[in-house]
Write a structure and sequence with these properties.
The complex is a heterodimer of chains A (about 400) and B (about 350). By secondary structure, chain A is an all-alpha fold. Chain A is about 75% helix and about 0% strand. With about 350 residues, chain B is mainly beta. The chains are: A mainly alpha (about 400), B mainly beta (about 350).
Chain lengths: ~400, ~350
């Protein structure tokens, strides 16, 4: 909100010849009387349909009300009426960003930048965020490299976007390093903590993930994703008590959440109640929790139902092709069936996603051995032997 | 091998919430690091309070040195002092006595407000009274000094030592006593601060004098009153100080305990202690053991709140709002716990 008000102030300062009624509307907006501000801006537009300030203010108000059609119409009007004004592009970019239309967001941020949007650091961070989400992590990192690390709250976002991009590039250590810096600057952003817990899990560090999750759930006691990750970390540490606590916390926060069903399935699975676990995971997948497909795949595999396991894992793969665990499990099944080329595709992807995972190296060693590539097989076996010393999966944590 | 299963769940919502945070400007709030009392090996993490009984790995640990190395000698207990019949008891003989089980909360006397130097376990052992009676105490015997093999010792009145619930415990929550909790044998003085429940017990000495009086009054900086039973006290499990809450409602949870009494009532205030709302007790109040409680907080508006907590015991003793300013020591702290939280309702 502070930023929006600041920008309105900047607009007011930058646009010469502002009429009195629009100034009144901006004053009402700044004082928090959004309804009156909107009404006054509408009055201005009734008299002058080409009022840039009125369109901009109405667009910002619509954005705050999550009324995207109206917001976009007003920002597009600003761009049409004042094509050299960067603010229309900036706010249009934000409207697209919020709707996860990453390419359109990035395009408008670039246009705002070209028109010298005054808060250069802010727009660069948001542009990089959009680029990364649009699947261009390298470009995002290049964009961020064009500015000095900002100070204040924006600095946390700067490092967070670096972390997201490094995460997409399968550089978990660099991602962690950047996100730790973000947390040092802004310790009360749950998303940053979620990223750290997730990355720890992906890096095969469930005990560190759990320690982080326990601290995060204290700071954000009703934040659902944090509680879910807390439960997940407890699950990978074979601790049903902790999963139950996460389940209770999740239930306190939202009694109807589908994630609870997954956690309940995990508790059952840890307690050896495979049928109940299957039933909960099936219910979770029916309720659209895509992560349940991987768990179902694992349960079916345990039961010896390889066809069922493969079906669920393929479903999980469709939902998230970048999931290393899914790739590993699929690779194992395909390798077992002798489909070496399909297995290779999955296992090599698993290696990219989880470079420190010992089991991936073991399966790759098997694959290359099957393919007659003895030297590569031996290399993977050596890596496996090295990695398993520090791999929690080989020291009691859940596989 | 950990999976990335959650990624696909969180990714879609992540960006939206991230952006909301950009607009909302959460930055600037500070989450304080927990401050524990010095010297403990581990604290119970109240945010993980779920069951009435604290599991052995989660039970707090506090002692004066490293756990002593267990030898054959440490499996004997000598009973001596102001008695007609000194004797030595083998551990194996002791565990053949009729067992008694007591659930009791143990709190370290230095546990700060909201601190985790408190836990609850089910202790099984032999009644100390039976061991004392076998030694035929002399009429001069008024106290019992409990000696651990780590050279730590504490004195309790004979009346408390002879209470039928006072145990020489060898089991904790159904398992053999873990080393950190006093294996093979410890005293369990129900309702009293943990300092009297001496671990690694080697000697029970009946005395005419209270050796601990000097300890309690040393340097004149501590309360002149002997510190014995735990005070009425309550603690938050969630939310904890500095938490950020996003919901319009929140289930506040915690525990309360009352030493040798039982908890009667737990109340919370969110308006600077002007008014108090009664929490629901989740366990039947019993002597010695904590009760878990919960309170459904309907949050009226976003902003900063201070939640205050107080408990009342079955004798009507109520937690003080503030610590007695005349107390110069840090023992037996039981004033009301207050936590500050920030409620944010993202647009």
């Amino acid at each position: 909100m502070a930023k929006v008000i600041l920008c309105v102030g900047l607009i007011a300062a930058s646009l010469a010849g502002a009429q009195e009624p629009i100034q009144e509307a901006e004053t009402a907006f700044r004082s928090g009387d959004v309804k009156r501000a909107a009404a006054l801006a509408q009055d201005v537009l009734a008299n002058d349909p080409n009022s840039v300030q009125a369109h901009l203010l109405l667009g910002i108000i619509a954005s705050q009300n999550v009324a995207w059609v109206s917001a976009i119409r007003n920002f597009e009007a600003v761009i049409r009426l004042a094509p050299s004004n960067p603010h229309g592009y900036f706010y249009l970019g934000q409207a697209y960003l919020y709707q996860q239309k990453w390419d359109q967001a990035a395009k408008n941020f670039v246009l705002a930048l070209e028109r010298r949007y005054p808060d250069n650091q802010r727009i660069v961070v948001e542009l990089a965020f959009a680029e990364n989400e649009a699947g261009q992590p390298r470009k995002a990192l290049q964009t961020l490299a064009s500015i000095q690390a900002p100070s204040g709250p924006l600095a946390a976002q700067f490092y967070a976007v670096i972390a997201f991009a490094q995460g997409k590039l399968h550089e978990p250590s660099l991602a962690m390093e950047a996100m730790q810096r973000a947390v040092e600057i802004d310790a009360v952003n749950p998303e940053y903590r979620e990223f750290i817990i997730s990355t720890r899990l992906n890096m095969n560090q469930p005990s560190l993930a759990l320690a982080e999750a326990i601290n995060a759930q204290k700071c954000f006691p009703d934040q659902q994703e944090i509680q879910y990750l807390f439960g997940l970390a407890g699950y990978y540490m074979n601790n049903p008590s902790l999963v139950r606590i996460a389940l209770r916390n999740l239930s306190d926060a939202d009694p109807g959440s589908a994630q609870q069903v997954v956690l309940l399935g995990m508790v059952h699975r840890l307690e050896g109640k495979s049928d109940q676990a299957t039933s909960e995971f099936l219910e979770a997948s029916r309720r659209g929790v895509t992560g349940a497909h991987l768990l179902l795949g694992l349960v079916f595999k345990e039961k010896g139902d390889l066809a069922g396991a493969e079906r669920e894992l393929l479903e999980a793969e469709r939902a998230n092709p970048g999931n290393g665990q899914v790739a590993l499990e699929l690779g194992k099944i395909l390798l077992g069936r002798g489909e070496t080329s399909q297995a290779a595709l999955r296992l090599q992807r698993a290696e990219r996603c989880m470079p420190t995972n010992a089991a991936v190296q073991y399966e790759l060693a098997r694959l290359y051995n099957r393919l007659g590539q003895k030297q590569k097989s031996e290399e993977c076996l050596q890596k496996f032997k090295q990695l398993r010393q520090t791999d929690p999966a080989f020291s009691g944590a859940r596989q | 091998m950990p999976s990335t299963v959650h990624h696909q769940l969180e990714k879609a919502s992540f960006s939206r919430r991230h952006f909301a945070r950009i607009l909302g400007g959460l930055a600037g709030l500070q989450y304080p690091a927990p401050q524990w009392a010095q010297g403990e090996a581990s604290s119970f993490d109240f945010s993980l309070l779920a069951d009435w009984i604290t599991s052995n790995p989660m039970f707090f640990i506090r002692h004066h040195g490293d756990p002593p190395i267990e030898t054959s000698e440490s499996r004997t207990l000598s009973i001596e002092g102001e008695v007609s019949r000194k004797y030595t008891l083998q551990y194996e003989e002791l565990v053949r006595q009729p067992p008694k089980t007591v659930v009791t909360t143990i709190e370290c006397v230095e546990n700060p407000i909201g601190g985790g130097l408190v836990s609850t376990a089910e202790w099984t052992g032999t009644k100390l009274r039976e061991i004392l009676e076998r030694a035929e105490p002399l009429s001069s015997a008024r106290f019992v000094r409990l000696h651990g093999s780590d050279s730590y010792a504490r004195t309790v009145p004979l009346s408390k030592a002879s209470h039928p619930d006072t145990l020489l415990a060898y089991r904790m929550n159904g398992d053999d006593l873990p080393s950190a909790h006093g294996r093979p044998l410890r005293a369990v003085i129900p309702g009293w601060y943990g300092m009297d429940s001496v671990k690694w017990l080697r000697k029970v000495e009946l005395t005419a004098e209270d050796f601990d009086q000097d300890y309690l009054l040393q340097s004149g900086t501590r309360s002149a009153e002997p510190i014995t039973a735990m005070q009425i006290k309550a603690a938050f499990a969630r939310p904890l100080d500095g938490a950020v809450i996003f919901g319009h409602g929140f289930v506040v949870r915690g525990a309360a305990w009352a030493g040798e009494d039982s908890v009667e009532r737990v109340e919370l205030s969110v308006d600077g202690m002007r008014s108090w709302q009664q929490a629901r007790l989740l366990d039947r109040p019993e002597l010695y053991a904590w009760v878990r409680w919960q309170w459904d907080w309907q949050i009226p508006a976003p902003g900063s709140y201070e939640l205050a907590l107080r408990a009342t015991d079955s004798r009507g003793r109520i937690q003080p709002l503030e610590r007695n300013p005349n107390r110069l020591d840090s023992y037996g702290q039981n004033s009301c716990q207050k936590v500050r939280v920030t409620v944010v309702w993202p647009k």
